[in-house]
């Protein structure tokens, strides 16, 4: 019987078992999603803390959307372990959702993918034809290049012992509307029958479109360029946010005017681009382009523009302190928000960090308040403000993350506790005129200082 047919019968009788390796902000919702869809699930994580919390029905990720959906202890068909070797023999399909960060020199770090793959392949029973699907974001070619040598080294036979596929995760932290059960997926695999079997499987997970797109590299490339495109689009408005104020024009006025055109896609300038996707994935494409000897000038330039924003903003803030008569070395700045995006508690690649570093290099004292993060998640060099009402004596408040808690804080009360009342909207989400009426000297990224 063709694999797709076998899968279909196992799916229909509910006997199909799915393994998920890596129970982070992607893997855990994926494991829960397949369990909710009626599958027998084996969840694996190397972290004993993560396994213990999940086993206790708790959420070890920083994503609040996962808070109340972790199955309770003793739930049927829900097996959580630190042992890949224990889980894999029970599974028809194994999904790998491990991190793919970049190294300090901005090169892709594939060590997690390699280690997880090896652990899975070593545990696959001969003749089981287990399908192993990589979901982590990688560049075109990685799945084959990283896993096939291990498969061959272990003497596994494709199509008899194992099959390899790629289905990129498209998870958007803090956005329940695009959770694992309601997001379109693409599947790449050398074997079309396996590809269609996986379409059958993922169609039980998500209500959105699931399609087989051909070989692995097509699906790998699709995911990377989704985020490369976003980084380039953001870089354009960030570059415009530096040009237009020099022409005494507010970039947001220009973007609002341009957005009246039917196919203008609007993005928002800011203090920088953070997270584990947008500022990271372009480096995968840059690396792959270098491997094949084709320049990626636009992708590289966009990364440079977005990485320059924290330093650019620090320069503007330093000038504002100088113009306000703050003596050198005595400036005190309060960052409102530290997380890389609103409504999540995630400091990874946050532009707040290089912004703070650039200000501290100018002998400015930096404090930060972020209700979504624990103080320990901020650098030791930053004064953590646990209770905003205790914040006083600052010269300048900077909106770094557009958390609802930041937008709705008592701006009048805060103004009364400031030493100087300068506010800088780093995300173009504040009502600057209203702040001016409260006595703030209001500024913003992409807005002429004179306004
Ligand atoms: N940002 C801007 N201006 C913008 C949009 C974003 O400066 O116009 C900044 C944000 O402040 C943040 C960073 O870029 O620091 C990334 O923001 P994001 O909205 O792209 O959020 P992410 O990193 O969580 O991106 C995820 C990605 N999802 C997946 O990789 C599956 C991305 O592909 C999604 O497009 C994005 O969510 C989304 O749609 O929100």
Helix fraction by DSSP (H/I, runs of at least 4)? 25-40%
Distinct ligands, ions and cofactors found in the model:
ligand SAJ
- What number of domains? 2
Report the strand count.
14
Structure classification: alpha/beta
Strand content: 5-15%
How confident overall, as mean pLDDT? Answer: 95
**Rg calculated over all Cα atoms:** 24 Å
Question: What is the string of helix and strand elements?
Answer: HEHEHEHEHEHEEHEHHHHEHEEEHHEHE
- CATH topology of the largest domain, what is it called? Rossmann fold
Major sheet attributes: 8 strands, mixed
CATH superfamily of the largest domain: NAD(P)-binding Rossmann-like Domain
The strand order across the widest sheet is: 3-2-1-4-5-6-7-8
In CATH terms, what is the architecture of the largest domain?
A: 3-Layer(aba) Sandwich
Question: Low-confidence parts lasting 5 or more residues at pLDDT below 50?
Answer: none
- Note the total helix count: 15
Rounded to the nearest angstrom, the distance between the terminal CA atoms is 72 Å
* CATH class category of the largest domain: Alpha Beta
Shape: elongated
Describe the structure.
The chain has 451 residues and is α/β, with parallel strands linked by helices. The chain folds into two domains: 2-215, NAD(P)-binding Rossmann-like Domain (Rossmann fold, 3-Layer(aba) Sandwich); 228-451, Rossmann fold (3-Layer(aba) Sandwich). The protein is 38% helix and 14% strand. The protein is built from 15 helices and 14 strands. The chain has helices at 3-12, 27-36, 48-55, 84-87, 111-123, 142-153, 192-205, 216-243, 251-258, 281-291, 297-323, 352-360, 404-407, 411-417, 432-437, and strands spanning 17-21, 40-44, 78-81, 93-96, 130-134, 162-166, 185-189, 210-214, 332-336, 365-369, 383-384, 396-399, 422-425, 441-444. The chain has an eight-stranded mixed sheet with strand order 3-2-1-4-5-6-7-8, sandwiched between helices. A six-stranded parallel sheet has the order 11-10-9-12-13-14. Helix 5 runs parallel beside helix 6 (142-153) and helix 8 crosses helix 10 (281-291). The longest helix is centred in the middle third of the chain and has 28 residues, at 216-243. The termini are far apart. The model has no long low-confidence stretch (mean pLDDT 95). Ligand SAJ is lined by residues 169-173, 175, 226-227, 230, 234, 267-268, 270, 273-275, 277-278, 340-341.
